[in-house]
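REVIEWER CHECKLIST
Item 1: Sequence provided? yes
Item 2: Single chain? yes
Item 3: Sequence as submitted:
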Amino acid sequence: MITKISHVNVFVLDQERAKKFYTETLGFEVRSDANMEGFRWLTVGPKAQPDINILLARPAPPMFSEEDAEALRGLVAKGSMAGGVIETDDCRATFRDLKGKGVTFLQEPAERPYGIEALFRDDSGNWFSLTQRPNSH
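Item 4: Structure as written out by the authors:
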């Protein structure tokens, strides 16, 4: 029986730059950083959620053919890839904080049926929903 998801993948263009963005800008912590036969296994996650690992993977061989890796990197750079939903207790305050750190926002905080949401891009172009659930603040 499946019990939980432990790792999710976010494709990035530069792992060192992504590591800095996710740790220094978003406040995540590094969970692992190891080289395995030409592949860098770099995971990060929110400090308050130790059971989830986000693999910051650069599309490249041996995971993909060079042709497929190049196509995927192009989609990431173009902003075509969604990274997921990141929850916050206060969307507006987190928006102000991240905007002050230079994060690119596609949408300012707005009321939605599921809470307050803003959309931002990471340093590679992936977009994320920054969401505050109703009644969480």
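Item 5: Key structural point noted by reviewer: Residues 66-78 form the longest helix (13 residues).
Item 6: Recommendation: ____
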